[in-house]
């Protein structure tokens, strides 16, 4: 970044492996999964201007043979975009891939013309360029990925993270951004191009778990440190059910920013979701822990996903003598007004006479799902019923929503959070509400990308 943030924050301003605590730490070895930050090329302190290029590259994952991947600026994930609330982000994007693409800014509230979907933008052809420009309205962790053949292009490596800071942030001794993914590698290091029945039904699953693009990643924590983890699940279909043995995860936020803190032993993160977590590092220098994803049954008689190591945690360096306190409260979230209308959305799947499996919204498949018409500045509720035998992560473009009911049971106002992606468990229902204050055509879909590309996608037209 070209400029100081202009506020004293006792938190880390870099990603995984670039720890910058409140006091000067002893020298330490960087994590092998470090995210590089994009250089801001604009001298204006309120404008972040960067260049992104989608292009192919060769990458080696652990001991696998070299793999051909698709990248932003030669890396997967792409480089981190760092900014503050109120900044204007200008992205000069060039497509050097062999097929058309776009960039969708997942979770960012922006003009529809900048949303990077087929409803709002013609695909950017190979060799062509496009300039994305919008103001960053909200603090939090967001991410970006294509919305053209997204199941294929994201699986090949096209995704990256955006961190937007508020003027005041929770205090931590270390902060790390973890972009979670998995990838299926063949014996020769290649990524399968075909989509088999299991990959279609459950999303492309991988045999190699990645943290910031690294397999067998190591995260380095100082003893006694209060660590802030900003987590995003960029996988096509894998649900990460995270746990760190013997360590409480203190959740302080989710997709739409900070929320009322709570403790948990494990944290389920569906594709597209983000979580903001604090933890206290146990043990002395020289000890270690493993961050794992525990078994989770997503449905369809698939059984539980097997437990897997996500990253190795090495505890090293000088102990933190006065660790930062855990946040215990945040400003209460303002509930949205009562909606004047509720629209039903029924999620399901069916097999066509041809034998093809498709995923449906109100028994229709994209692009034949009728658009929902919503007047601008209207508060609209949606009753989402999942009648299928598996979980679906529901994602709404361009707006945050709040959950009002789960299976008909009201959610208390003290549990309100702003979300843009949420799991709708199998054979269950959610009632959500959103304020539609930005005109345009906005997509909503299942964020198991194979489901979206095979029918489970619709549009909301804000008039």
Mean pLDDT comes to 91
Portion in helices: under 10%
Structural class: mainly beta
Number of strands: 31
Please describe the topology of this protein.
Blueprint: E1 47-59, E2 67-72, E3 81-84, E4 88-95, E5 104-106, E6 129-135, E7 140-145, H1 150-155, E8 160-165, E9 174-183, H2 197-202, E10 208-211, E11 214-215, E12 217-221, E13 226-233, E14 240-244, E15 249-254, E16 257-264, E17 266-269, E18 274-280, E19 288-293, E20 308-315, E21 342-351, E22 357-361, E23 372-374, E24 378-386, E25 392-396, E26 401-406, E27 409-410, E28 421-424, E29 428-436, E30 440-446, H3 449-453, E31 457-462
Report a brief summary of the structure.
With 463 residues, the protein is mainly beta. The chain is built from three helices and 31 strands.
Characterization of the model:
The chain is mainly beta and 463 residues long. Helices cover 4% and strands 41% of the residues. It contains three helices and 31 strands. The protein has a seven-stranded mixed sheet with strand order 11-10-9-13-18-15-16, with no helix packed on it. The N terminus is likely disordered.
Features of this protein?
463 residues, mainly beta, six-stranded mixed sheet, 3 helices, 31 strands, 4% helix, disordered N terminus
């Amino acid at each position: 970044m070209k400029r100081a943030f202009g506020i004293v924050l006792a938190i880390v301003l870099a990603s995984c492996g670039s720890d910058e605590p409140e006091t000067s730490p002893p020298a330490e070895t960087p994590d092998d999964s470090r995210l590089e930050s994009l250089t801001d090329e604009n001298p204006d302190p309120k404008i972040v201007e960067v260049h992104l290029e989608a292009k192919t590259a060769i990458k080696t994952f652990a001991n696998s043979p070299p793999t051909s991947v698709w990248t932003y600026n030669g890396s997967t994930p792409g480089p981190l975009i760092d900014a503050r609330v109120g900044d204007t982000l200008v992205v000069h994007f060039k497509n050097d891939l062999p097929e058309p693409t776009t960039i969708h800014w997942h979770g960012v509230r922006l003009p529809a013309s900048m949303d990077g979907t087929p409803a709002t933008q013609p695909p950017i052809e190979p060799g062509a360029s496009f300039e994305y420009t919008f103001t960053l309205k909200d603090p939090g962790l967001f991410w970006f990925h294509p919305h053209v053949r997204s199941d294929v292009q994201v699986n090949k490596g096209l995704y990256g993270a955006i961190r937007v800071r508020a003027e005041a942030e929770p205090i931590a001794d270390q902060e790390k951004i973890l972009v979670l993914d998995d990838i299926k590698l063949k014996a020769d290091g290649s990524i399968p191009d075909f989509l088999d029945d299991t990959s279609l039904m459950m999303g492309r699953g991988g045999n190699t778990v990645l943290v910031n693009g690294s397999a067998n990643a190591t995260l380095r924590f100082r003893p006694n440190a209060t660590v802030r983890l900003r987590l995003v699940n960029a996988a096509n279909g894998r649900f990460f059910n995270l746990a760190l043995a013997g360590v409480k995860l203190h959740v302080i936020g989710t997709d739409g920013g900070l929320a009322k803190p709570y403790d948990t032993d494990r944290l389920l993160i569906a594709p597209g979701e983000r979580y903001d977590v604090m933890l206290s590092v146990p043990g002395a220098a020289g000890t270690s822990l493993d961050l794992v994803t525990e078994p989770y049954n997503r449905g369809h008689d698939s059984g539980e996903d097997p437990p897997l190591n996500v990253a190795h945690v090495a505890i090293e360096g000088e102990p933190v003598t006065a660790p930062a306190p855990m946040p215990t409260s945040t400003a209460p979230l303002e509930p949205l007004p009562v909606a004047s209308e509720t629209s039903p959305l029924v999620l399901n799947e069916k097999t066509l006479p041809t034998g093809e499996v498709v995923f449906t919204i109100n028994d229709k498949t994209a692009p034949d799902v009728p658009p929902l018409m919503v007047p601008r500045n209207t508060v609209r509720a949606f009753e989402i019923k999942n009648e299928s035998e598996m979980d679906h992560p529901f994602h709404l473009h361009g707006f945050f929503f709040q959950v009002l009911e789960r299976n008909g049971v009201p959610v208390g106002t003290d549990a309100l959070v702003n979300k843009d992606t949420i799991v709708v468990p199998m054979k269950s229902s959610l009632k959500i509400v959103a304020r539609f204050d930005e005109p345009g055509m906005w997509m909503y879909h299942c964020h198991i990308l194979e489901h979206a590309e095979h029918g489970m996608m619709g549009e909301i037209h804000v008039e």
